[in-house]
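DM from R.C. (forwarded with permission)

"hey, sorry to bug you on a friday — could you get me a structure for this? deadline for the figure draft is monday and I only need the backbone to look sensible"
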Amino acid sequence: MINFEEELKKFHPSLEIADSEEAIYNEDLTDMADIFVKLVKDFDNPESQQQ
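My reply, with the result:
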């Protein structure tokens, strides 16, 4: 039978995942909520839109 406590003691996270996590958290990404807020602001102020 698998001893989960022993298996957890052997676990070491992958270096690639740790590096990716840091890069993702340090990046300023635009998400769907940011896009939606901008669309609502543009809809409320049509004269502020650039042509």
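R.C.: lifesaver. The chain has a mean pLDDT of 81.
me: no worries. Residues 12-48 form one domain.
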